[in-house]
Amino acid sequence: MSTKILIQGGPALHGEVSVSGMKNAALPILFASILVNDTCTLENIPAVSDIAISLDILRQMGAEVSYLTPTTLRIDTRGMTDVSAPYELAKKLRGSTYLMGAQLGRFGKATVGWPGGCDFGNRPLDQHMKGFDALGATVTTDSGFIHLKSESRLKGSSIFFDVVSVGATVNVILASVLAEGLTVIDNAAREPHIVDLANFLNSCGANITGAGTSVIKVRGVERLHGCTYSIIPDMIEAGTFMVAAAATGGTVRIRNVIPKHVESITAKLCEMGVTVKEEEGDTLLVKGQSSYRNVNIQTLPYPGFPTDMHPQFAPLLCLANGVSCIQEGIWEHRFRYVNELRKMGATVVLDSRTATFVGGGKLYGAPVDAMDLRAGAALIIAGLAAEGKTEISGVDYIYRGYDNIVEKLAGLGACIQEVTVPDAVPVDGRH
Ligand code: EPU
Q1: Is the CB of 125 under 6 A from ligand 1?
Q2: Is residue 208 part of a domain?
Q3: Is the CB of residue 165 below 6 angstroms from any atom belonging to ligand 1?
Q4: Whole-prediction pTM
Q5: Is the CB of 149 under 6 A from ligand 1?
Q6: Ligand 1 near 308 CB (within 6 A)
Q7: Number of domains in the chain
Q8: Residue 273: how many other CB atoms lie within 10 Å
Q9: Which residue range(s) make up the domain with 331?
Q10: Is 204 assigned a catalytic role?
C-alpha cells in the first residue's frame, strides 16, 4: 500500500492558518540538547517526520523524551553516553550531521554515519571538517562513518568559512560552546535558525554573540543547564502558504509568522502583484489576484531569497504573464519538480542552474511524483491551482517538513485528501 495526496484543483484558498515551529531550527536545537546534559522543555515543536526520526536517534542514544502537549516536549540528556548514532536512522536525515558537533562538544568524540537528507547533488561536509579540525579534533572516515576525536578539551579558534553553510555554522557553534576560550566564526550563515540555536544555547548558559551577522563569537563555558525554550515559526511553511494563496487567487490570513523572516518572499510576491499586509500579532494577510507580472528570482543565503522557497514559486511563475526565471544559487539539483510540472502543462526550459518559465498558460491535474520535500510542496501548489485532479505520490518527502499540510489546506477550503492505495502491479503481474 502507498499513500498519495489527491487534489481537485480550482477553489481559491480562504480563511486562516497557523504556522508551526520551524523544522530547521528545531533540529539543531534538539541535537544541541545533548550538550546541555540536563532537562530542557522545548515548545512549538512541529509534527514532522524529520523530528520524529531525530527523537528516535536521541532516545536510542540514551535521552529520555516525553511529550507534554502535542507541540511541547521534555528532553533529558543526562543519561546519554558517547555511543555512536544508530546508522540506519542517522542516514535518513541531514540534521544528523549535528550529532558530530554535539557529541564532540560533550564527549570529546563522535562516530556518525554519513548523513542523508534530500538529494540535491553534491552535499559536501568539508567546511564542517575544517571547523572541527581548527578546534583541535582529528577527523577520519571509513566505510560510511565519520569519526571525530579530541585528546583534550577542544580549544577555541578562528574559522573563516569558504562558503556560507548553515550546517557547518551550526556544527562549529555546537562544538565550541563547551570549548576552552574564544571561537570566532567568520562568513557564518545568518539564517533565523542560527539565531534561534544561539538564543537557545544562551538560555542554557552559553556565551554566543553575533548570531544573525556573518561573524559569530562563542566564548566557551564550563557547563550548560536546562531551560524552557520556544522554537521560532517556520518561515518556509509560512512562505508556502503565501504562495498557495497567491496561486489560487485566494485571501489567507497566516498566523504565527515573523514578517522579517519572510521579507524576501513578501518582496517577490509584491513585485508580481500579490497584496501582502502585515497585521498585529505576527500575522500576514495575503490577497491573491487574477493575474500576475513575471519576475526573476535568484536564490542566495539569508537574507537573500531562500532556496527552500524556489520550487514553490515555480507553479506561480507558470501562471504569471510573460517569461520568468529562477536561478538556483545553492543546490545544483533543486529542479526535480520541473518534469513533473511539465506533465501538468508547464512550459519550462532548464539550462544548468536556471529554469525559464513561459507563463500565461494553465496548469492541468496529472499523476506526479514528489522527489524531495520542497518539490512536493511545489506540486501541491500546482495541484491547487490546476484544472482537474492531481495525484501526488512520494508524499513521505512532504511529511518530512510540513506539519499536517493536508489538514491545514483543507481548512482553507482546498479539495485535498490523503488516500492509501494498493501498490501498482507490474504489467506482467509479478510483484
Ligand atoms: N557546502 C559546502 N561545504 C560544506 C557544507 C556546505 O560546499 O561543508 C555547500 C553546499 O554544497 C551548498 C551550500 O554550501 O551549496 C549551502 O549548504 P548548507 O550547508 O547551508 O546546507 P545544509 O546545512 O546541508 C540546510 C537546510 C536545507 C537548506 C540549506 C540552505 C537543514 C537540516 N537543512 O542544509 O534545508 O536548503 O540549509 O539553506 O537545516 C529543506 O528544508 O528543504 C532543506 C533542504
Answers
A1: yes
A2: yes
A3: yes
A4: 0.96
A5: no
A6: yes
A7: 2
A8: 16
A9: 2-20+233-421
A10: no
Q: How far is the CA of 253 from the centre of ligand 1 (A)?
A: 30
For residues 304 and 410, membership in a common domain is answered with yes
For residue 247, the Cα-to-chain-centroid distance in whole angstroms is 22
Residue 427: pLDDT over 60: no
Cell of 323: 517569461
Atom of ligand 1 at shortest distance to CA of 164? Answer: 14
Concatenating the DSSP letter of every residue in 95-152 gives: GGGHHHHHHHHHHSEEEEEPP--S--S----HHHHHHHHHTT-EEEEETTEEEEE-SS
Identify the burial level of 47 via C-beta atoms within 10 angstroms of its C-beta, where 0-12 means exposed, 13-18 middle and 19 or more buried.
middle
- Is residue 47 domain-shared with residue 159, that is, in the same domain? yes
402 half-sphere exposure, CB direction, 13 A CA radius: 26
Q: Which three cell numbers stand for residue 204?
A: 542554557
91 vs 199: which has the higher pLDDT: 199
Atom 27 (ligand 1) nearest CA: 308
The answer to whether residue 428 is domain-embedded is no
The answer to whether residues 154 and 180 touch, using CB atoms and an 8 Å cutoff, is: yes
pLDDT in tens, 108-147: 999 988 776 566 666 789 999 999 999 999 999 887 788 9
Please tell me if the CB atom of residue 127 comes closer than 6 angstroms to any atom of ligand 1: yes
**Cell 500579532, residue located:** 281
Q: Say yes or no: 161 and 15 in one domain.
A: no
Question: From the alpha carbon of 331, which atom of ligand 1 is closest?
Answer: 15
Among the listed residues 40, 118, 227, 318, the single catalytic one is 118
* Cα 183 versus chain centre, distance: 26
